[in-house]
Amino acid sequence: MAHCPERVLPGRVMTELVTNDRVVGGITPEAARRAKELYDVFCDGEILLTDATTAEMAKLVENSFRDVNIAFANELSMICANLGIDVWELISLANHHPRVNILQPGAGVGGHCIAVDPWFIVAADPENSRLIRTAREVNDAKPEWVVDAVVRSIAGTPAPVVAALGLAFKADIDDLRESPARAIVARLADLQPHATILVVEPHVDVLPAELEGLDNVRLVSLEEALGAADCVALLVDHKAFRNPPALRSGAELIDTRGAWTA
């Protein structure tokens, strides 16, 4: 199945367009065969034929599987925060088991695939999709958990400055669709009108429309944001953010990706 398009790293996307295996479903066997002939023109991966319904379900299942596994990591991060455990160390230790491969937690789940596709399965069979629904609920709740952490960190500061690092839905792309970081910034700006939110997103030149019109949100350089911030929220682990900087004295760090604290 083709991955969702990403407007940064076009070389990788073009490589996957050619090399990925494809699940091709036709309304009739003849339709599937003819679609396979089209993919054979440019695709080196294996072309797997099935019916249209199964092909569509395969795509939804791929993304739901990833969503469930991310939800496990995100839930662990919240449990560990309450218990005073370093989640990054915990996951690293657990992953030494040969049959354990826990993913890394984050600020939530975004993009136009993983954050959306599981709901189609839930809608098709709500009675039997309890795990898939719960995973979606866990991942959808994570941004608000991050917002609460930021709000607690600036409580009592008269005119706090928050550096929000990253707006894309994952690292090193410019795609903001369904981005949890984008939702976090919007929520913070609404809850904390007295705060200034300095957004750093190296892959875009302008803020999205819902943030651009807010008086307390600005798109700035990394240096400017870190130099002024009372709280630094690392929301996306872009390469540009991966070298831990010296934070302003007294600044709180909320590292949702473990890039600076792992």
UniProtKB/TrEMBL annotation:
Organism of provenance: Paraoerskovia sediminicola
Family, per entry: Belongs to the UDP-glucose/GDP-mannose dehydrogenase family.
InterPro entries tied to this protein: 6-PGluconate_DH-like_C_sf (IPR008927), UDP-Glc/GDP-Man (IPR017476), UDP-Glc/GDP-Man_DH_C (IPR014027), UDP-Glc/GDP-Man_DH_C_sf (IPR036220), UDP-Glc/GDP-Man_DH_dimer (IPR014026), UDP_ManNAc/GlcNAc_DH (IPR028359)
Domain UDP-glucose/GDP-mannose dehydrogenase C-terminal: 163-262
Protein name per its UniProtKB record: UDP-glucose/GDP-mannose dehydrogenase C-terminal domain-containing protein
